[in-house]
Records
---
Amino acid sequence: MVSTVWQNPVLLIVVPLGLAFFTPIIGLIRKELVKYIPILGMLFNLTLSLFLLPKVLDNPIIVSLSGWKPPFAINLFVGPVGILFSILISLVGLLTAIYGINYIKKGAVEKYHMLFLLLLTGATGIVLTGDIFNLFVFFEILCISSYALVAYNQDKNGIEAATKYLIQGSLGSAFILLGIGFLYGLFGTLNMADIARNITTVDSPALFIAMALFITGFGVEAAIFPLNAWLPDAHSSAPSTISAILSGIAIHIGIYAIFRVLYTLFGFNSIFTVLAVIGIVTLLIGEMSAFRQENIKRVLAYSSMGQMGLIIFALSIGTVDGISGGLFQIITHTLSKSLLFLCVGYMVYSTNSMELSSLNGLGKRMPLISLLFTIGVFSLIGLPPFIGFPSKLSIILAGLKTGETLFLILIVLMLLATVIEGVYFFRIIQILYFKEPDKEERFKTPFTLLFPVIILGLLIVAIGIYPGLLQEILDRSAEIFWDKLSYIKIVFGG
Amino acid sequence: MDFLYHNIHFIGAFGLMFIGLYMIAVKKNLIKKIIGLGFVETGINLFLIIIGYIKNGTAPIFSKAGLDPARMVDPVPQALVLTAIVINVAILALALGLAIRLYGHYKTLNVEKIRGLKW
Amino acid sequence: MIFITLLIIIMLIGAIVSCILKDLLSAVIVGGAVSLIAAILFYYLQAPDVAMAEASIGAALTTAIFVFAINKTKRLEENEENN
Amino acid sequence: MKKIISFVLLVIIFIGIYFAVSQIPYGKDKMSVSKHYLNNGVKENGASNIVTSVVLNYRGFDTLGELTILFIGAIGLGVVLFGFETKGKDIKSPSLILNAGSTFLFPFILLFGIYIFIHGHLSPGGGFQGGAVIASGFLISYLGYPKKRISEKGIHIVESLGGTLFILIGLLGLLLGGYFLSNILPKGTVNTLVSGGIIPLLYVLIGIKVGAELAGIIYKLME
């Protein structure tokens, strides 16, 4: 038994949590050590998740906690989607933590690293848990630590954005708790598989209200169209490392939560059409607002909003292909957007300004960063040979495969949005390369800032050239993500 | 009257939530909004406890012999509400911290006078 | 039952009063009272654990935190805010 | 105008919620999982307070998350208020009554808090309630002596140790019992102080940690 303890998936949550709890004591011993703790935790998570991936592709693992079988105790459902997300979280978390070593210098540095680790732990917990209230608890961990981190710079914008985010986000959480109350009142259990097993036994109005509450609540975090007022402010005024995490991970976790609840618990079909339309509306609004911005980080934030719409659309197509495409797009967006935010973080750090005009001619002053920025942009637009191309293609193919007129129209709108996206991103690239720089001197980039960005760039190119590497895993994940009956069967065994 | 009699607990819980949501939506003072947030959470907690209540039930504690488990109220919502109360205090403390900082920057808590905040 | 009905009505009136009051400090104190009544309701709903938690955390500590925060900001809600 | 619109919207939402609630009968027995807890909880965990059993064993993972959230709340407040200079109104020096009263009350409040969390598995109350009582003891001692502060370092050490030990006990359960947070210690006789396996132990840790964290939050907002 002892030999298998170290590969128990619960360690993915517990080890970073324990490290975060232990950090203040380490900080008392030596202050410099604190900034290496997130790296340690994420390195552990990355190794363990990569180790677990081949196993869960065959059979998802059910981990019951505190010694009782589900539904009597909380259980983790460690399926391929969960592990895939866990790999993404720990990869981006690791790279961002390395970036943060030299980037975060002012303010409560120790506390920043603790909150950073806890945010990532919360995200990991959400994707692994199989209990609806446990999901809420981890969701709160994610949200509250991001409220605090958005305010980290303590300037006017940061505090304002954090306040706005906090009020809207905690209202969303309140709705989720209310929805959980309804579900508990109807079924007397909190285990998702147990609820899913019984969900046909109740008439629809109460269930519909519960579902609406869940979509609203998680939708605040996922930035679905009418609920996304906080996003551009929060993502643009946070420190760049946190913007990368929020844009690259937190909002995807919101989407994961929505679709986990919808696929596994409710399984309604009519709502998906509505969600697909909302997704495309979010996409168009996001891209059009990004078009008008003059602040580089706000451009990226609005573009994140647009990408969220695209992912929601893909996941609401309602076929395995669509889900696979949506998951692929999540990976694309995570890698590209964190790359972009990290690059921009360095540009803003060097030029001390977030205005687009201050980026004039940076292509000559910091060639490598600008090159990587261009890779990220091309990948987001969906140009070959970068990762964005196969993912967007698979979404379009999945939509066309359904053969419905509505989806056809939506895909045309999506292509239109891509064109808008292309225009404003090419404008930035033109500013980077074809405007005359104010000064001639070159910036020197420290290695800890350069290394994560280069890794992300390499990953984008590598997966873009060999998308087949990922495709099988994604298809298998999509099957398990979508299939409610097998979820119930796996949890209860037999 | 009969309706009131049977639903008075639910009216209490949802009335509190209603007032809280109204305060968040309409009031312009940040502290008032935060008080409203507290009311919403208290209302939801009340709702959860009401769900677990059984008429003439006893508290789920076997403090003396002869208590019948079938007559006890549901312990799970109580556990959930314990969690929710603690979460609530963390959120409120953070919100008040932010309000203090915001006041330091703008010398007002009226969200309409604070530049970027559109609610 | 009548007692509980009365409590709930007082609680709701307290919440409305806290919504209307211009003086933030009084609003917060009334809010604390609402929490306290909620704690009594929890007790009558056979949840003594929750009642204790709500009374000690929800009513006492939260009110204290609010009072400290108001001490650092402004006590009165400005007049034009309520039109 | 905005008032009326919000009011109408809220009324519509709540009518919808009313229809949903009408499907959940008040005061009826709706349990499915909890039946198991009520019938077997004492046997399985040895704690006579079933709520404690649920909080610390059946749903112990939630409690770990909850502790984390309070931890985040305290740290986050530190991040938000970092380097914020005092602008609060001057506090008058307290009267003799407050001064003497707080000196006199402080140890008793502390003792009461400790009593609450040590008896968490037997009677209502537990770590969170006891921790809150302890924090209010610190609040009163502050009101009596505004100049006197407990050290922030001490608070950090206590909350950090509490959390780490909680996780270590959980991991010990994983190592010896095969499941995270499984109840590995002997259950003892029901309704005595030493019963319930790891439950009283965990509640003591939670009580200390919550007390330190809430006291820390209060101190940060007061400064």
---
Amino acid sequence: MLLLSAFEWLVRFQHMDRRWIFLGMAIAIAIPMLFPFTSEFSVDRSVKDAWQAVEDLPEGATVYISADFDPGSRPELEPYYRAVLHQLFTKDVKIVSATLWPAAPPLVFPIMEEIAEVYGKEYGTDYCFLGFKDGKELAIKSIGENLPKTYPVDFQGTPIGDLPVARGFKQLKDFPLIVLVSAGFPGIKEYVLQVQGQYELKMVGAATAVSGPDYIPYYKAHQLAGISSGMPGSAQYEKLVFLEHPRENLVHPERLLGIEGVNVLNLGHVFIVLLIFLGNVAFFTTRPKGVE
Amino acid sequence: MTARWLTLLFLLALASPAFADSAPSDAANSDDDDSSVIGVGNDSAGDDDDSAAGLEAPPGLMEAAAVAEGSMADVVKVPAPTELTVTAPKHNSGLNLDLSWTPHPDVEAARFTVARAESPDGPWEMRVEDLTPDITTYTDKVAEDPLNKGVRDQYYYRVLALPRGLRAQADEANLTKPADRFAFLDAHANSTPAIAGEPKGVWLNTSVGFLLMALIVLTVGGLMFWFTDRARKGKEVFIRRIPGIDAIEEGIGRATEMGKPVLYVPGIDELQDIQTIASVLILGEVSKKVAEYQSDIIVTCCIPLVREVADEVVKAGYYQAGYPDAYRSTNTRFISSEQFAFCAGTNGIILREKPATNIYLGRFFAESLILAETGFVNKSIQIAGTAEATQLPFFIAACDYTLIGEELFAVSAYLSGDPRLVSSLKASDWIKVFCVASIIVGTLAGSFGMDFVVQLFTAAGH
Amino acid sequence: MRTTIPLVITFVVGLIMLGEAFIPHWMYRIVTENILEWGVILAAAAFVLGLINLIQVNLPKVLAREPEWGYKLVMLVALVATLVVGFMGGGDRLSNGQAYKWVFDFVFVPLNATMFALLAFYIASAAFRAFRARNMEATVLLVAAVVVMIGRVPIGEQISERLPQIVNWLMEVPNTAARRAIFIGAALGAVATGLRIILGIERSHLGGD
Amino acid sequence: MSIDPSTIRSVLATDCGSTTTKAVLFELTDDGWRQTYRGEAPTTVEAPFEDVTRGVLNAAMEVQELSGRTLVDGDQIKTPDQGDRDGVDLYISTSSAGGGLQLVVGGVVRSMTAESAMRAALGAGAIVMDTFATNDKRKPHEQIERIRQLRPDMILLAGGINGGTVKHVVAIAEMIAAARPRTRLGGGFNLPIIYGGNSAVRPQIEERLKDLSDLSMVENVRPIMEEENLGPARDKIHDLFMEHVMAQAPGYDKLMDWADVPIMPTPAAVGMIIQTIAKQRNINVVGVDIGGATTDVFSVFDDAFNRTVSANLGMSYSISNVLAEAGLESILRWVPFPIDEKGLRNRIGNKMIRPTTIPETLEELQVEQAIAREALRLAFIQHKEFAVALRGVQKERTIADAFRQSGSGETLVKMLKLDLIVGSGGVLSHAPRRVQSMRMMIDSFAPEGITDIAVDSIFMTPHLGVFSSVHAEAATTVFEKDCLIYLGSCISPAGEINEDKPVMRVQMKLPGGGSMDETLGFGELRLIEASREDELKGTFTPLQKQLDLGAGPGKPVQQVVRGGVCGIALDTRGRPGVQVPMDERRVPTLTRWVEEMGEYP
Amino acid sequence: MGAIFTPGLTVTEHHIVQKDRRLPIEGDVDVEVGDVVEADQVVARTSLPGKVFPANVANQLGIDPGRLKAYMTKDVGDSVVKDEILAETPGFMGMFKSEAKAIVTGTIESISTVTGMVILQAAPIPVEVDAYINGRVVEVIPGEGCVVQAPAMMVQGIFGLGGEVKGEIANIEGGAHEVLDPAHLKADHAGKIVVGGAYITLKGLKRAVELGVAGIVTGGFDYDDIKELLGYEVGVAITGGEDLGLTLIVTEGFGHIDMAPATFKLLQSKEGRRASINGATQIRAGVIRPEVVITHDDEEASAEKFVPPEPTGISVGDTVRGIRAPWFGKIGTVKSLPVDLMAMESETKVRVLEVAFADGHDAILPRANVESIER
């Protein structure tokens, strides 16, 4: 009788209302948020390479940042974005940035402004934000070919010629490094396909966990100098910038969102793996004979 | 079974480090090896002309330079770079010139400024002000508006080596106009002599790589015609059955029986994306089938232009099927061009109008799983297809059928049953055979150090 | 005639655009750039049509009080409100205190993030449903998936030092291999589709022949 | 009407076919239930007699003469059994006279509700004249014209799941209404229409069809996409068959009066006995009845029963159609001697116009059996295409399906899972040598793995089918003892054979003590004599790794096999279809097989 | 049992022919019992319902089917002319007005508020049935048709193509074994029924069609030629509706077979007589064979309905023809009817009979493989 009910329970478990799964997931995610803990992790080669490419920049160089993410991918990419901004500003590297995502400007520019303020950087001379450009691949092509023509003015309408930081940069090729913070399309893949090959640009990027694997071939083919993918990548980057190699002028932020997030991820993954495991156990103990 | 494992093995081979590292690496270097050098500055000439170039600056500019002269006390000139070459890139539009120079060995961290003039005497125009020392090449676009302003036969270039602190002084002097700035910089920096370059427009790219690409396009086209011709002569073309495609018609049938509409999502990318194009083509066939079943199809679009085209295509489908009166324009809907808003809107349609069959074909991103799971909860038959590798796992997990990669491009041929279309599938299959063969040859050649094969293909990629 | 003209246009324009890959001269580029620009203008103009479509689909339903008209009303109100707010504030739209920024921060951001966050839950339920080791291939996939999932987070490293390496190998070798296969196949499919359209073999979009 | 089976001692069963009426006597003997005597007479539905009972009485008279039991009493069948071989306890009958029960079915989607409706009709023993659906590629006016021409016995209309489409179902009803169909046999009756579709549409259907027809409502044949519910529609067809169709045919009113249980359409009765046997023995069965005009195929796989009628595949009236559909080449591959093609065509044509003739010469017999193979093969292909899983069903996918997303609508007829093939019909039941029947069935069905093969000795499956509805136990006893003649079993590996390599190793005990251990190459057909009583232990090993004998590709099978009146056939001639070389090797190859089997004198 | 039931063909100078002349659907019968009718005389007539043309008017108007009735300008039963407006929407200030027109002339059969379909029925098609043969009406089936009876020469063929035609008999030169090829056909055969020979070639048949020959009666022709002629194979012997250009009757079977001498002689003697022939064949239960009927118009046709005697089957002394190899087409007389089953060469055990063939051979063959020739 007990056996029978156990059997039945297993059968039911396989077809349980998915809201139970949602509840479980919610709990798994909430725990590390409510009771933060730290866990050890090492840094992937690809993340280290991305970090190194920034480190290798000569002082006073100017990089181009394409910040193409939206609130949805914010948890994964914002930590990287913040960390790389810290890294660049502490190195006195200047920034020209823009975005191809319509939803990005209100998100990415305030962050840049905030961190710039921390390091006392000035808009126009140390960094600038050219705003959103529609056209996706076409826009990338156009930026690659002629930056001022694509962005005659910045997001506030200031002519690009009046921004000292952007002065003299005609093409993407003129930047020693391009940093792509990319949540999907258009993003890293399009930059690689449209302009990297043609102009032999040096690029590093951060991608979401979902699209990260897509870019591995580019990294392997040296078309990307480095790549950080997903929350773990962001956390590793934070670790490099804030914990392992802090520059003396670094201003530590209050929270390291990536490192916190990776703990959430930790439990989330464990929860899913557990679910899969239990699901299979239930399936194999209850499946009728002869069914494949 | 065997075939599957062979494929797996092959895929593993494909990913072998040898291939991964050797394929599209930075082998483009060989491209311009034998480029015609138009002007070569030699060391001695450079030294001689050093001051002359500066002196020959137009008088107006000299005045501007003189304004800043006062604070120029502690700037020490650094030697100009040597060996400036100006060449037209080999297979070029005729608007670009490649500059290349060697920094003078005596200086370590000079910044470079590139200037251009239409005659050796100037007037000089600053092309780029601040190049870091590690940059020793520059590609200049000679004309912004060639159609109206024309392109000259010759342009002259000089590269200035800026001493440290010079730019800061220019800034201090508030020299914002490029012409003034350059005059100032030119006055305080050493420069290479003016080197002439002739932009050379090419009408046909004849590099090996491009020929190879043309060959592939022509072969696909040729094979397509050949197979089409065979099909016309009644030769049967065998094509593997793809259950997912058969399922489309089944899904339409299910919707008909249930008295519910079919939902069709042509991805969320722009119209020009080939996946969107493929999806719109399929939509034509699907809507024809839907019309034959006298059922309804709801199309939700993320891009207004896609909606317009989809609407036309659906209308044509109904027309073709002989039920032009059953077409309803309001069933092809623009939802939002914002990804998740679109996703939420489409989910709303799934939950409220309860389509019996959801077809997702095209380019999808993060919304894929959200759509597919909602459809699953609604108990719809779901058929997905995308060439977007990142989204395939989600579709496979949540949909009844998933068309993987190229299968998406085969659907319209399958559905229409048009022998000409089906035969074009055969043509691309043969090209695939060719690709597989090239990969194997390339991998082997690469492993045995025969780089030229690899380079052949690398060139094609650029 | 109905299909001939579009076919001719397709063929000519398609051929011109195809030629871009082989003819580098700037004069040719001007032609192709212009065509592309028309495309961009067309796409932008279509936004107006999109707006009209939205109203056409939703407004009559609200007026006729069709079932669930409330949703449509909310949609229409939000549409108008966002449009108005978007025109306000000019270049300063992104500054704090501006209505547009407010809408962005307190409406758009939470909604967008919520939608994306749903993925975590959906992945859990889809994985639970789909990952069954019912045959050889499924077992391989399942094991690989579990290894990657665990290996990508710190707990994996605590379980075994080797795990991240295995994950890296899995991602870089078999995974990349499969992706390349899909890329190549899809790229060829794309070429064939393009040619089919240019050559006028494919005419489903014109309603067939 | 309830009959107590235990009180029955003798049963007379008749089957009124379109040309002959067959009477069979079942008696409870000391040996249990047996079929004892049999007689036949021409059917008398048509002019000049126009009374089916005359043929019945003639056939019964023949049984009476042979058995000495009084069966006919004046113009009546004498019931009940008065004892001392006077009368019988039960009289039952089936009928397919006058072309059987002809139906038109309608549904919304051809492969979905229309197919469900078709399944219900076929299961009820009907011939489906045409199927109408929204997507049958005909314009409504073409459909209307066609319905007007057809003149069916009744119409079964389905469509839509419950709560599903209204529009489509109403459209089809309107189309039927516009056609104002009439019954085949004329008279003042309204055409019976059965509606078994979306239950929500009943009022609309009633509004449109009530005045034009004799409308009856049954439960939806497809209440949800994932399920069929054919029983109610099937029962209704039976009822209406009795009420309308039978009542109008000449003499049937009398016959219905005589019969103690409702008269069944012949194929429905055959289906019944096949289902009974599959259920009782828990096996998968394929049954075939090859007649002069049509070939019926029945199958029961994992409790799923299907029947198909190949209306134009038969051995006499439709023999030319077999030629037309199979092609001369396909028939030639079974003819073990050289033959002039034009002559063969004319011969077949002459058989069509003189359908009752009997092959007198050996060559004629061989040609006829060659055609039979093709008729059976084609009918079986049609059956496999029809007997499929339901379409339009949402599937819960797992990653296991990522590599093989099997399509829906796969055939239920899985040859490797088939346990028994039962053949009946003149060409199989009355073949001069039993081994000829066995080979015909092996060649046309191409059984895979280990499959038993049997024939109906004297074509009494319909009688047994209707008998089983009264006394299932007795019917199956007779079926096993007198009806079914086990010819033997066939052992053949499934899968594409590499012709140059050995195919199968057979290690087996032989009847009478010996044993064999042999390796067979490609293209062999062997017959090992063994009777049904012999239980021979054997190990059968496929020698190529893609070949399957039932235990999985390349895996050996250990099993007890039994023979029959012919024996055990070992067949390595290729699957799914037997491969016959069509060049100059044809005649020698076929001759070799013929000699090995001992088929012809 | 002294007699066996074996299908036979009627080939006789004197026969009472009865022809059912029925309408496909109910209609009016123009004759009464006892009337003398001519072959071409119409005996019954009716109108077939016209073709039906559905149109989705609701969709044409772009309205919900439920509201269709409100916009219809015509109702069920109204007659409409092609392009007449069936329904229209009022529109909005003269704009957005839509209308639906009738696609054919006819009457409105139904209007559906579920599907939005309006079904139009075109004008009815008149159908007439003639008497087919000269004779007397012996029975009237009210509303359906009548039975015409006449004494006549009757020759049944074995297989035919094409329907009823009437024409004069024209014999060709040569005997019963003559092969009918184009050379035998002349221009004045147009409209006639050509009788001849053992076999007609495909070319001969095509020539006959060209010339406008009404019918051909011959011994045999090739099964293959049917496909050549019709474009499809006749898989099941149910014919009569073929559109061939003429009616073809084969008296013996497929292949090159001499027309039975009796048949040949009988037809030969009717040169110039007007015959009614029908190729319709139905080899099923209730068999229909193609026929050649030449009424004896000089004889007084009985008004009494003739009741044919029940078939008696074959008895010793009857003339029979072999209808299967190896005796195909041979004619002989029945010598004896053994009772016991006998095994044939094919090992089939059958009831047999012994036949003395005309060429002097005696043979034992299955009873099923002969047919009696009725005289």
